[in-house]
Amino acid sequence: MIETNFLNLEPLSLFHQPRSSLAPPIPFPGKRNLFWGRAPEEIKFKSGDIVEILGNPGNPYWSHDEVNLAIIVKTPPTIDEVARMRQEYTDTHSGFDLCDHALSTEFNYQMDTYEVLSLACDELDHAPTISVFKPTKNVSANKKRR
Asked: Between the chain's N and C termini, which has fewer beta carbons within 10 Å?
């Protein structure tokens, strides 16, 4: 039997709690977590730039307590690029795939990355934009040639 909130005549569930409930709402990714793209002027680096990457926990290539040099291969998508990707996605999907939750799993913070080639291990990886910096020291000519 489905319980009903007789004041609002709305079914109750784990995902919908009445406003008077003392329990905190159950968080879920929604529109507020969608990645809409970056304005071109917000993209600090371009392909070919040598940058420092601050490692983040869970990254197999960089320690989270040191920086390493890398070359930018691809920049994060712009607002126009994400709008195009989202349009292509909505044209080819339907139903649940178009709800806020499903969209936020496709278009989320994981898109806000630079694709980089690590100079430490010659591997491609994605670095969050907040972990990419201008080199603090001069980069040797040998490294620049690579």
From this structure: N
Overall residue count recorded for the chain in this entry:
146
Q: Is the pTM of this model over 0.90?
A: no
Q: Residue type at 10? A: E
What values do phi and psi take at 113, rounded to 5? -135, 160
Distance CA 71, CA 58 (A): 20
What is the chain's pLDDT, residue by residue, as a tens digit (146 residues)?
Answer: 444 444 444 444 444 444 444 444 444 445 566 788 999 999 999 999 999 988 765 565 566 677 888 999 999 999 999 999 988 988 888 887 777 777 877 888 888 999 999 887 788 888 888 889 999 877 766 666 66
